[in-house]
Amino acid sequence: MIDGLYISGHASTRMNQRGIHGEVVSTLFAYGRCKRSRGADIYFMDRSARQRALDDIGPKTFARLEKSLDTYLVVADDGTLITTARPHPGG
């Protein structure tokens, strides 16, 4: 579990394959914008979410995480992290 999110086996596998660390997941879940899509919540970092995170976690931590913040989370209604991914180029 990461910050109240249960991690599915699939999500854990994808996090490991894609090099997405728990701290990135926590940041996305805490500060990311949430949109409903296909029966799940999608968390991602838009400009205002990035600014909120920067203001709260500070420039040093933000700089360390920044390259990974283009990741998005897919979260089920029961609070389970279904998967994590990075957008496809041009998609």
Description:
By secondary structure, the protein is an alpha+beta fold. It is globular and about 30 Å long. The longest helix has 11 residues, at 47-57. The protein has 4 helices and 5 strands, in the order E-H-H-E-E-H-H-E-E. The chain has helices at residues 9-18, 22-31, 47-57, 59-65; strands at 6-7, 33-37, 40-44, 72-75, 80-85. It has a 5-stranded mixed beta sheet with strand order 1-5-4-3-2.
Number of discrete helical segments: 4
How widely separated are the two ends? 30 Å
- Proportion in helices: 40-55%
Pattern of helices and strands: EHHEEHHEE
Label the structural class: alpha+beta
Number of domains: 1
Q: How is the biggest beta sheet arranged?
A: 5 strands, mixed
β-sheet strand percentage: 15-25%
Total beta-strand segments: 5
Mean pLDDT, to the nearest integer, reads: 92
Radius of gyration, in Å, reads 12 Å
3D shape? globular
Question: Which features would summarize this protein structure in a list?
Answer:
single chain; 91 residues; alpha+beta; 4 helices; 5 strands; globular
Topology:
Blueprint (H helix, E strand, L loop, with lengths): L5 E2 L1 H10 L3 H10 L1 E5 L2 E5 L2 H11 L1 H7 L6 E4 L4 E6 L6
Parallel strand pairs: 1-5
Antiparallel strand pairs: 2-3, 3-4, 4-5
Helix pairs in contact: 3-4
Short description:
About 40% of the residues lie in helices and about 25% in strands. It has about 90 residues and is of the alpha+beta class. The protein has a five-stranded mixed beta sheet with strand order 1-5-4-3-2.
